[in-house]
Specification:
alpha/beta; 5 strands; 53% helix; binds zinc ion
Length: 270
């Protein structure tokens, strides 16, 4: 007969724990965007750092400009995490996902202390979220990540400008040995297993999205994003050829854009 007692003791323990973690130490801040269509709730186990509330509007504006607001009113929860262990930081220097993730309507994020890096991370994840709200079937991996990287870099550039700083984005080292062919890049269904491959994948996905965006313009690029993110989406080239009259020459040009141009430019691809 000692069983019920033990169970209630365990339940009390858990209840106490729940009260502790949901207790008074945590802080939340609310920010609205897109004329109130987006409500962001930032939560933290401690104080919400000021750089987060300063940088989120920059990141959100950059993403809204490229993707547009969600079709229905939406709430995004941004949960601030405590600093990651050192090994994680060292492992994935060029991978935004090492510091932030977006799942459904939540972004979990290590804010860090550098506003430019934070603008990049928030820009990246907010882009994934907005793309998910507009296109629940999600874009293909290269398009989702390339677009997130492009918007992230725009957010970081704006953040740098407001602080009269220069944004430095050195090209990943060892890029040449890990480059993907265009067909491989657009065929990726899961993230590359190694850090070097992953860095090349992100760099090339961004380069491809930049090239397509430059060729199509913002409005037509949004149409392309919608076509490729629909359930049963066509092959990535089909709409380019049928709707925007891309030729083999144009596709070859795209293939050139995802390789670093070493002979004409220095270390920085931008
Ligand atoms: Zn991502």
């Amino acid at each position: 007969m000692s069983h019920p007692l033990r169970i209630s003791a365990i339940m009390l323990f858990w209840t106490g724990l729940a009260l502790l973690t949901g207790g008074a130490q945590g802080a939340t801040i609310r920010q609205d965007f897109a004329d109130g269509r987006i409500v962001c709730v930032i939560s933290s186990s401690g104080e919400v750092p000021e750089i987060v509330s300063a940088v989120l509007p920059i990141a959100m504006k950059a993403a809204l400009e490229r993707i547009g607001p969600p079709p229905d009113p939406a709430q995004l929860s941004i949960r601030l995490l405590d600093p990651p262990p050192f090994y994680k930081r060292a492992k994935a220097l060029f991978q935004a996902e090492a510091f932030a993730t977006q799942t459904g309507d939540e972004i979990a994020l290590h804010p860090g202390k550098d506003p430019l890096k934070l603008a990049f991370r928030l820009g990246h994840e907010v882009t994934h979220w907005l793309a998910y709200k507009r296109h629940p079937a999600r874009p293909p991996l290269w398009l989702d990540e390339g677009l997130a990287q492009m918007v992230a870099s725009e957010a970081a550039e704006t953040c740098a400008r407001t602080r009269q700083q220069d944004l430095e984005r050195p090209r990943p080292p060892k890029l040449e040995g890990h480059l993907l062919a265009l067909d491989e890049l657009v065929g990726m269904r899961s993230y590359p297993p190694s850090a070097a491959r992953s860095a090349a994948f992100y760099w090339q996905a961004e380069a491809l999205v930049r090239a397509l965006h430059a060729r199509l313009g913002t409005a037509e690029f949004a149409v392309y994003l919608g076509l490729l993110s629909a359930p049963g989406a066509p092959d990535w080239q089909a709409p380019l050829r049928e709707r925007w009259y891309f030729s083999d020459w144009d596709v070859n040009w795209l293939a050139e854009q995802i390789r670093p141009q070493t002979e004409t430019r220095g270390g920085d691809p931008h």
